[in-house]
Amino acid sequence: MTGLPDSEGKRTNLRKLGSERIEHNMRLKFNPLALLLDSSLEGEFDLVQRIIYEVEDPSLPNDEGITALHNAVCAGHTEIVKFLVQFGVNVNAADSDGWTPLHCAASCNNVQVCKFLVESGAAVFAMTYSDMQTAADKCEEMEEGYTQCSQFLYGVQEKMGIMNRGVVYGLWDYSGENPDELMFREGDCMTIVRREDEDEIDWWWAHMADTEGYIPRNLLGGKRTNLRKLGSERIEHNMRLKFNPLALLLDSSLEGEFDLVQRIIYEVEDPSLPNDEGITALHNAVCAGHTEIVKFLVQFGVNVNAADSDGWTPLHCAASCNNVQVCKFLVESGAAVFAMTYSDMQTAADKCEEMEEGYTQCSQFLYGVQEKMGIMNRGVVYGLWDYSGENPDELMFREGDCMTIVRREDEDEIDWWWAHMADTEGYIPRNLLGGKRTNLRKLGSERIEHNMRVKFNPLALLLDSSLEGEFDLVQRIIYEVEDPSLPNDEGITALHNAVCAGHTEIVKFLVQFGVNVNAADSDGWTPLHCAASCNNVQVCKFLVESGAAVFAMTYSDMQTAADKCEEMEEGYTQCSQFLYGVQEKMGIMNRGVVYGLWDYSGENPDELMFREGDCMTIVRREDEDEIDWWWAHMADTEGYIPRNLLGLYPRIKPRQRTLA
Questions:
Q1: Selection from 200, 198, 206, 202 nearest residue 223 by Cα
Q2: pTM of the prediction?
């Protein structure tokens, strides 16, 4: 079997060659789109999550124009609604009478779903074709929730083009049909200068880039022909509203306007750019205490170590507010704890306000990080900037490079540490784990030569830290390993170690990173076997949902994970019932949908060939003579497939290894 060599994957372990089988003409017709539409209506979230990858375009409707999102909204399956929208299903798809998902939510007085759809770009001015009503008009007056829902939707209509400084977004492309109309594309940001005129209720005067003109408000929801007759006259305007995306980002970050920050950031060429005083949007959000915006900006890629005109970084700002939670987040995101201000040469820890609440906790955290850096995590540190080295005994490194500290400060070298990287050693400036070299050390100071070397094997370190539960080190060192699924000499991987040691957080991280969930050691034990032998039902569930092979067998005793549950230990009943239950239900639940966990080329004419991740539907499980081979349907063909190459869910693909 591909992936489990010389073991259960070989067909000869499962069936004698040459045994006869009955020909099958029966076909299970499998239409992924129909299945998506039906499961969205029925609330079968697991099936929705899996089958959506088989659909060419999940926004496609049935014959009446109804999409999966319409169905999920109408049936009140909020979890599915959110999943579909976040997957990219068209939030503004209209059925044959112009009903959008927002109309459906409004007709149910479901204010929570209405809010979510609006925040996801739903068109509040979209109208139905027959009665020309917006979603707000569809709220059911005699039903519970009417007041709250209608007030919300009419409120959005009244405030659009006024709130968020008048910023709106095109939801479709519009080419402009008259000289006084703006041409825009889906997603373009515009600023409303004036909403309706006496003669132009449905067209608003807007500013974009260096031009102004009319835009149809229904392309912030709806179709133009539903709202305005072609050829109506308008007044010419020379008034201009100056629009600076960077200034708007800086201001909205300070004011806590999260929705606007999320929208306008895409209009800014570089969101890390500062104002004239060196202050960035991240500085503003930190100083104003808008934690949600802080996290968004950092995760978007805004420079966490940008320094203003006096060298204050966002970490200095958080420290001066004694905001230990933001300090922790920034440090975990690569903030430079030794960065110093220019005028008084102080680190963030020095900026904690002694007379204010939270001082002790915040200062202890920051000074603690300074004391432990280069010691914790086996001395592993990372360059936060590129450094070319100015003296022969200095290491040259690039931003993101991983180094190991051999020795922190000497008597004469407080601010320079001796480090090991690859096959070389040398001094590195600790301020490039935060700060500027000239702030920390005078050029030309002498240092002692060193011959001591620390041997550093990234894979060994990953295996060991996964076993020891050192999550921080696992998160860092994994980027130094060429293939995190590689095992030691006994076939044991980092995932085996984390599972056996019960470090659930590390298990989830490794799997989500793409470490092979079905790696087998020298006796065929997979991580699922390990979890089962510990009766750890929670980890078993997670591994199965991540594509673990429940029929994978050990080599010596040919046992599945379910057989490995420890009968005399706590948790046996729950764990064994779960795993045997999955074995019994696979190929039946989820309408018989299963996934290939390895590539299989097929060795006989009546076998299906499939690739890892392929979706198949089981027509019939075992026959009298075929226990380990199931008859399956895929695309337009049917045939036998080996159950030991199958999973209830597809395996998570390895992510691209770039250091964040």
A1: 202
A2: 0.37
